[in-house]
Structures
1.
Amino acid sequence: MDRIGGETVPGSLADSRYQAYVPRPLPPDPPLAFDAGLVARLERANQALGRLDGMARMLPDPDLFLYHYVRKEALLSSQIEGTQSSLSDLLLFELHEAPGVPIDDVEEVSNYVAALNHGLERLRGGFPLSLRLLREIHAVLLRGGRGAKSTPGEFRRTQNWIGGRTPATASFVPPPPERLDECLHAFEQFLHLPHDVMPSLIKAALAHLQFETIHPFNDGNGRLGRLLIALILCEDKVLAEPSLYLSLYFKAHRSEYYDQLDRVRRTGDWETWLAFFLEGVEQTSTQAVDTARRILALFDADRLKLRSLGRKAASAGQVFEQFARRPVLGAPQIAAQLSLSPLTVRKALVELSKLGLINEITGQQRNRVWLYQDYYAILSEGASPL
């Protein structure tokens, strides 16, 4: 196959000369070659994605599942960019109890959650996935903290690069600013292709890599490029909710991931990238379904334990259900959600602790915070900082 990924163009910055890369518009030309192996991978990925979507729809409380999966994806995507936050950091930050937490890091993760929610709300309101929407999402993603210095919501007007101290020593130099408009215009046209023209998973895979190659913002390109995958699948109604998150797969295979990006740029070999991407979809979807089942089994087993409390089981059960929604909580947050007195909530917390369901994590007598340890352990698998 004779396919060129793009062209290199000369540039200079502070008397330093370099070569920038301008990708060809999508879809690839000549067209993608779907051999039997790639077709089989696509079929398996679609089946796994269908099972994931079905599981998410059938859960007693889909919002509960999505609440934590969105946060885990936000955490992992930010970790790939170098943040050192943990899942507990984020949950404590959202609880307004975050002493010792690196605030800039955790704000970046929290912004990712808000950015995804903003994009989904706009899509559900009928707004198309477009350059304008990407700028809006980027503005939310980089608001406050370190990101505020990187022109949130605006495409870059200067040359950026990846790796190295200058473009001349960089591992990759995206298109120069004067070529950015043409790249983005072609990219937007590709985003508007109907899903009956191109399978949604293939479209998401191509769009993600192309976005990373164009690198249109001063900062946040990696996070927004990963977020873009879920937005495409939701816009095409392949998923009812953003339940597919590939950052864990990209994090676990980050060397191969970056090699695949580079391979496409050097040789135009989109097929090998698609095989890698579709394998990630299949693995991630299967893992997510398994995780959901394990969480439901844990809840069922722990609800049975509550029966031993007798008359105290009713109030303890109400408090337990709050931990099934958020595994890190304090008594005031629980009382605000329930028609129980603060004293009743505190007594219920003690009973749940005696059963071994929760444990207090501050060691303090005031402003105590409780953790549903077994639930948190499932949620945080693979989420340790790099």
2.
Amino acid sequence: MSTPRIGVLIAQLGTPDAPTPQALRPYLRQFLSDMRVIDYAPWKWQPILRGIILNTRPKRSAKLYQRIWLPEGSPLLVYSRQQVEGVQARLGAGYRVLVGMRYGNPSIPAAFAQFAAEGIDRILVVPMFPQFSCTTTASIYDEVYLAAAGRRCPLFHERKRFVPTLRFVEPYYDHPDYINAMRDHLTQQIEQLPHVPDKFMITFHGIPQRYVEEGDPYRAQSERTAHLLAEALGWSEDQWVLTFQSRFGPEKWLEPYTDATLEGLAAQGVQRPLVFAPGFVTDCLETLDELGHEGRDQFAAGGGRPDNYVIAPCLNAFPGWLDALAGLIQTNSHGW
């Protein structure tokens, strides 16, 4: 009798099906209705979301997605599938690796339905967020529990009587293999440049400051990652800066802000910045457009030469990262 396969869920945040307002509207409705992301009372937030945001933001967001969309589709999905393919090849036939999106498609419930159809009843969940936040990792946990119980799986009825065994890869923000993969990846990127950067910006997606004050460990874990990466690359304290991006809404978010920092670099004498986002292991809108396009404009607005601005790609399908990811999976599925 053969050993049953282990299911591996590569859990990503999400992407729209197309770079159009029609596709962005349901995607944003699902994303911005998640109370892990925006925790305002529904009676207060939903009228704003449905009456204002969903009538204006889809068109604006669609234009941004159109600037980064690949011939094969959404960059996040394209690169996620490359990660799945690379990890599957490293793990072999004893594992079944699928990608599942918290928002959009292919969804986490669809992945669980596929596992069930293949008779896989032990599933390891890999949140693709090295640093824990209630806005990302915890939201993945919520959706996984619902999907595993069958409450959001189209192949199951409410009377589902079996729930698969679950394990989760814990946040790996300080794991040596993750740090070393980034070190090797960035070293390779820097060696290909015509000039040596004179400032390294390590940027993470921001969250409201209030969330940290209420116990979210995200800032502390992001700072730990940044310092370990800088140490691994041999950067002195004055060679790099830590910032937080993607502010949204009226609340105070984690500082210093990436956009304001970029605008001030030239005034500090920085001519050749390199920007990297360790919290994103897969390129997406926030890296390719917000950092790639808008970030370049912000650097130029402060007096910098846009041609000297460099954004390093995410780990994506970098072989060292796929090796690290496969190692994390093997370690966390030990005993199965």
3.
Amino acid sequence: MTINSKIATAIATGAVLLNALAPAAFATTITVTGNGDSSSNSVNVSNTNTTSVTQTNSSTINNVVNSTADTGGNEANRNTGGNSSVDTGNATSKVNVTNAANSNTADVANCNCNGGSTNVKISGNGVDSTNSVDLNSEKGTTNSLSVNQQNSSSVYNGVTSNATTGDNEANRNTGGSSSVTTGDAKSVVTVSTQANNNAAQVGNPAGGNAGGGLGVVIAGNGDSTDNSVDLNAHNSVMLTQSNSSNINNTVESNAETGNNKANRNTGGNSSVDTGNATSKVNVTNEPNFNAANVDDCGCTTDLLAKIAGNGVDSESSINADLGNSLTVGTSNGSSIYNGLTPRALTGGNDAKRNTGAIVGIDPVTVTTGDALSNTTVHNSGNTNSFGQPFSMPDFGNVNFTADFQSFWAAWMSWFSSHS
């Protein structure tokens, strides 16, 4: 008797963002030139780019499995004449539970930087003119990028697997032989839980994210002019990856061929011969992996500033406040409980109070098979990887609802090669 139970739980909460956020490069050219005496000229420019990517997954998985394979509990008792025997087949219970949930992948091609160039020129304006250019003088942050990936999973696997060929009786028989022969009892339980993976590639590993140059020229303006340029170019990249997992595995695996009886028989042989009892439990938990790479996000590149050839008593100033900030936070929290009760039993057999036809010739025997309990527990998780160049996994045209397992396999293959 064979019972096969297979549960594959694929929570299709994988969020993928590939090459979807690549703000177009732009060029800014500001020219204040050729204005008359005593004119007042001002230019205010605000170039603000804000990109926010949020990927959040939450999953709750409860698997409660009871698998029983039983060929035992047979009786051949109180018979007269001929042989009395119990012969059972094999009992096999196999349970496979696979949980795969919560994966985020983000690929932001350029760090939301100004991919073009900014050129400011104040020249050729008349005497006593006032000329000013403000670029983001109040905004403070010109470009901001925020990537936030979060996963939360709660997984409970409660598995009870029983394979029994024992508890048989051949008692109080008269005449002939009395025997109990059992098949093998085998219980195999496999539980695998993989949850909470984040991968983020921000920027172009090939170095294609460099922002354009900043060029400022104040030149050739008339006497007593007042010329000023204020530049405030800030770039901010914030990447946050966090995982939280709670995994509870409670497994009871029983394989039993014992507790057989061949008692109080008269005449012939009395024997108990059991098969093998094998209990195998494999538990694998792999929660919480973060991988992040931020390439070439120093968005502000060369600054060329020039003040030259302006008239007597002119006042010219260039104020530049340039800054780049990168904040990366990765965190993992996992709670794993494995409560395992594997049992393999071939003992507890009786062959008592038997009377053979000829004492010393007709034997009374008990022969048991092997009892094997093999338990393997593998826990790995809470891994953060930052700053290692990588290319994103090749997911192909994966349908995340119907083919989440393929998506997960591609993810894990990629991660194992980069960890």
4.
Amino acid sequence: MVGIRFAEGGVLSHWLVLSNPTFRRLAPGMALSYLGDGIAVVAVVLLAQELTANATLVGLAVTASSLPGAVGALVLGRFLQGRSGAELAFGDAAWRFLTLGSIPLAHVAGVLDIGLCIGLLAASSVLHSWGSAGRFTLIAEILPQRQHLAGNSLLAILSEAGTIAGPPVAALLLVFWSPAGAIALDALTFGVLALSYYLVRIPARIAPPPSASRLSGLAVVRQTPALLGLIALSAVFFFLFGPVYVALPTLVQQPDGTALALATFYSAFGIGAVLGGLITPYLSGFSPWLITVAGVLTAGLGLLPLGLGAATPASIVGFALVGLSWAPYQATSIALYQRLAPAERLAQVLAVDSAVALLAVPAGTALGGLAVEYGGAQGTLLACAVGLVALAGVAALLVRQKLFSGPGNEPDLTSSR
């Protein structure tokens, strides 16, 4: 586990990424789009509630704003193969600008109902997995491998900053405007991002083998034990974290809790995630598998105070620790994909990873609803914490035994070199 020299780590790594002309031109547009995502978290729910009093339809609207991306990842591969990272990200941003922008237009025209709203939200998310894959593929295309971790962590920082700032901005907008107006602003941020991608110099396209199919990303994962192990780890990680989205609000909003307490927990998570993104480049000297597994372990340990009924300050610190682990896990797991997947298949493999997350989190959240109903919020959080710690232990054992290594032609993943 030989360390990379300090000159390539720490804050300097972020500076080197920002000094890349392509990344520097795209960063403002990406930051705006992440802010738009944060605004949409609030605006979509409020617009759906404005259009219907049916809670099921409101929930369907929220689900439609993300879940179809998993379907798009699996069925659109045949049409999107061979596209560069910038082309994929441009397509997603432009499509979201058009579809999300249609919602406020329909609202102004007086034709927007909950059915049309759900349909447009579902359409807007179809390319979501490919847009995410395109962003991280672009990192691999424009940066040397030693800067991939820093580039990935910068995207994580921008994403978490948008998560923190978006809801307050949405709340401010709603004082003077409507939920449909807030969604119009969200759409505009994607229009700016699409224009940014259109104006940059797009890297040369890598042609895929003629035999490529729409499921070739899955084929690569199946044929590469390291990728299969990594995607399985992410799937179980996100599934076990899914119940937190139900259990935490239930726990802190019980009779002795307040809405402010829930906001404090989410703010602590967001601040921890931003700090995690800032420290990620300092971890470049460690094994990427070690950082990834440690991220799962840290998330489990951070949830323990909540599961054990600890005092609120200790629980908030623990949840901040969960956030602190989030950015290193994301950045390092993506760096492993960038290292392991063939260059001409990277976008398709990353789209599969994004699809798995889009499916695993809602599945875990749905299970969390049942678990909270029958076992209580605190018991559910304790089960999640214990499950994540156990998952980290199993993953560490498999990595140590090199059961994720390939048939003989793959890199040694227990080394940082």
